[in-house]
Amino acid sequence: MLWPVETRSVSPVFVGRSDELDTLNDALGRAGAAEPQALLLGGEAGVGKTRLVEEFATAACRQGAVVALGGCVEIGADGLPFAPFSTALRALRAALPDELAAAAAGQEDELARLLPELGEATSGRHDEQGMARLFELTARLLERVAAERTVVVALEDLHWADASTRHLLAYLLRTLRTGRLVVLATYRSDDIHRRHPLRPLLAELDRLRTVRRLELARFTREEVGRQIAGILATEPDPAQVDEIFERSDGNAFFVEELAVAAVEGCCTGLTDSLRDLLLVRVEALPESAQRVARIVAEGGSTVEYRLLAAVARLAEDDLIEALRAAVGANLLTATPAGDGYRFRHSLVREAVADDLLPGERSRLNRHYAEALEADPGLVPADARVTRLASYWYQAHDPAKALPAVLDASVVARRRHAYSEQLRLLERAMELWDIAPGEIRAALRPVDYTDVYPPCGCDPAATPLSYLDLMAEAAVAGRFCGERERALKITKKALRILQDEHDPQRAAWFWVQRSRLVQGLARGDGWQELGTAQDLVRGLPPSEVHADVLANAASWSMQHEPGPEAFAAAERAVQYARMVGAREIELNARVTLGCLMVDAGDVDNGLEELHRVKDAVLREGVAHVAGRVYTNLPSELESVGRSREAVPIMREGLAFARRYGLLDSEAWIWGNLSESLYALGDWDEAAEAAAASLGSAASAKPRGAGALRLAHIALARGDAAEAGRQLALAQAHYGTHDPMPQVQLPVARIALDVAAEEGRLLDARAELDRALTAGFPPGTHRYGWPLLLAAATAEADARVLPAAADGRAEALDRLAEAARKLTTGAPVWQAYERWTRAELHRARGTDTAAVWSDVVTDFECLDRPYDLARVRRRLAQALLEEATGDDERDRATELLRLAGAVADHLGARPLAEAVALLAQRARLTLTTRAAPRVLDPAESLGLTSRERDVLRLVSAGRTNRQIAEELFISPKTASVHVSNILGKLGVAGRGEAAAVAHRLGLFPAEALDPTR
Predict the structure, then answer these.
(1) Which is more confident, 152 or 130?
(2) pTM for this one?
(3) Going by C-beta distance under 8 Å and a sequence separation of 6 or more, which residues neighbour residue 856?
């Protein structure tokens, strides 16, 4: 058993840092109230970050919290993937074994990528959501473990963190929602130069209001004096404090070193370099201890005792004596687990490592690699392959380094550490040409590659090629978000393939290029897919061929749905079945089922989607299941079966959360918002849309969420908020990849916002752009709401003189578009009739009979808001045609029903329109309290009817128009106007309108002629 040796260089008294400790303790208290906390602790090397974390951890433990520490591990220039999280989870498992087991239940195979003790990590499918899936499961694991007990996860030395660790930390801090959890991470601020990879992460986290960032300052002179007193166990001489403070500049670690140096009498004659001071401490050791220190410095952050013994090649007694000297000098310290050694401070290790000669460094790395190859049990199993690859690479031995680096890349891929996989593959490509030919010839794709299908060759017999490495690197780059690097690799591969006759491999790379171009917002990817199709055309069926067709069909479904997309999907299914590519087959069948529904073969299309759903759940194909849970309810919604879609989406949300399918979850939330809106559950629809924005890993599902919020805001009368959400949606969608299913809903909301703000010409321009682009087959679900919105805007603006110019042409274009657009389901047949009724209203030819047919259609549908809107229109038509009490009674009941729905939904514009119509017609809606729309004007002596007339005068109405709106004769309207002018003491209508405006009698929306 090894143990740390207590020395006098560390002050037993904790000095200063009261404000920082208060902040940390405050975070602990908030976490105890189930409010997760995130803190970043920065400071220069040696300023005292670790000591502060230790003090806080001790205090947290005293309060009953569980503290899990994890440090970023450096091996040469490399970091171990997820090392601090693995260490912290291991500590949690030791402290709370039952709680962690319960929290990980059902996801052990995924979480084993971070904590191998949970079981064997399955190979699983690797895709762009693989890493996000692991991150989501990790975040939920920590939330569950911290559900009942406060947990502190402290991650040290982020400046050494690998990319995957940085990505996981960013995800965790962005998404923590519940649990008694504190996440504390430390980093060296003086190491974060302009191009340091941690710098963008810090900038991102600074923008999160949930993350607090602390910067540790150097000690003051007074604090340095207290620190020295603690080290010396006596009050120091003031002159000595002044000297040490000046030389250390308040850096706590250098204060310790200078204080010890002064006591040991080696302060005289020191150079001005504090780094040299550290080396003087080393050089004062016996030669054997110096040698051991150099070996430990090159071995990594921590070196296991047995590995150190194998590399040092000293007799055990001599090794122990050397270690005792280094520990006694406070240079090395034993690890907490007692199985290895590390430098007491990384600054000392860096000074010793920097002092190594180049040949000495290579030789030490070779010795480490040879020792590890001879006895793999010298280091923990989860770090073995990565460390061996680093040692051989730093030893500059290509023959040994190439296979070791490739082995490490496979381990990184299995852990979803795609950033590290990419770095290792780039290192392998660097080594490829300088490695001996016989080494390369012995490598096999089956051992190192996963993404490129065999396509007829035997992967166990075919030598690994440079293009195999490029394929793996391109996909790893796409998965980890390094699309620029991936695109460069892909372009280089395609240049190489110009000189080789391998159309299938070239087609595969063109598919990758298509995905990358779309991901980088540099195009829609179709040109690349077209090239891939040309390359495989006429070739025998293969997995690549099936994948090309499946991608082409999926692209066409979203961009240019129609017969060609349908044919491509059918061929993709056929080819995939012929070559046994089950996942490609299932994916293509999802596309095929959607295209069937959109083409009007509703029952068969939905039946196919249900069959695929059952198959993917049975066979465990999670990524296709995510797509089914997105598309099946969407297709149900497209034919008006909202209530049937909702339970499937709730099931899909649970599935997506369980498997960490972030984008699938976001799409499902957006679709759920749409269905809930249709069913009249607007509050939950808004919550679902917000969840879509918050859960998405990529931009487009966030765009869908924002668009849903814009739609709800419009219906509730908040045009400004609708405009903000529309702009957000447009920013998320971008302009590089236009799709009808995006463009048409965006155009519809943009048209509605423009109409609501009185910008009819802008609304017409939106419609013109949409009609010019056209409605591809299957997009009628987006086309009808757009045409209805345009027809309604024209009808509402019928009395405005400014709208007259161009109205006839706009109405003709709308009528022609409505004539050509298919319906395909009862809901769109109702929308067609509604749109034609609005066109009649725009022309002044609508009748109660026209609107009665529309109401009849919607009474058969489960869409309460739409029904309320058309009931209001029918009531208005009945009142305009009223010849007796029967029509007025029916109108009253229609308005009562419409108003009740509007009040329930919070649809303010509809509620006000209902109330205004009832007021104008002198109807009493006795079963509801009608909102008071207009401000009182009793002080002017105006009657209720005169107030109504003045409102219309202020809106620029003529006597005849006033008569039409108020259901009175033009002569009566003239009398009211004369009375108003007299009561206001003005000479004309313009002056009356000015008085009303100056007194603020009518809000702007009350003057809106569309109401």
Answers:
(1) 152
(2) 0.75
(3) none
